């Protein structure tokens, strides 16, 4: 009787092994589901980034407003007959004015 119980317990363990640790086991499925969720999060982030870049490209192609804004803020360009005022915060020093290069005769 004891031998039959041990044999049935061993058989039960052999049957459970593929369920938990096999190729299609629960642990593997849980791991794959976590990977799919991480990939979906990454895709959502990339889609929002792509939408932002697409919007920016459309603005640059269609109008001059976006180009002008970039020129003003990134390159510090100003229009003709415009006055540029820079307000310095505490601890900032006044930038050196650019000196014109001498022209060759």
TrEMBL record:
Membrane topology label: Single-pass type II membrane protein
UniProt lineage: Bacteria, Pseudomonadati, Pseudomonadota, Betaproteobacteria, Burkholderiales
Keyword Cell membrane included in the entry's annotation: yes
InterPro entries named among the record's database cross-references: Cell_div_FtsB, FtsL/DivIC
Keyword DNA damage found: no
Oligomer status and interactors: Part of a complex composed of FtsB, FtsL and FtsQ.
One biological process term in Gene Ontology: FtsZ-dependent cytokinesis
Protein role: Essential cell division protein. May link together the upstream cell division proteins, which are predominantly cytoplasmic, with the downstream cell division proteins, which are predominantly periplasmic.
Homology family: Belongs to the FtsB family.
Database matches in PANTHER family: CELL DIVISION PROTEIN FTSB
Segments in the Cytoplasmic topological domain: 1-3
Coiled-coil ranges per UniProt: 29-63
Name of encoding gene: ftsB
Subcellular localization(s) per the UniProt record: Cell inner membrane
Periplasmic side stretches: 22-105
Entry's Gene Ontology cellular component terms: cell division site; cell septum; plasma membrane
Protein name in UniProt: Cell division protein FtsB
Alphabetical UniProt keywords: Cell cycle, Cell division, Cell inner membrane, Cell membrane, Coiled coil, Membrane, Transmembrane, Transmembrane helix
Organism expressing this protein natively: Pseudoduganella namucuonensis
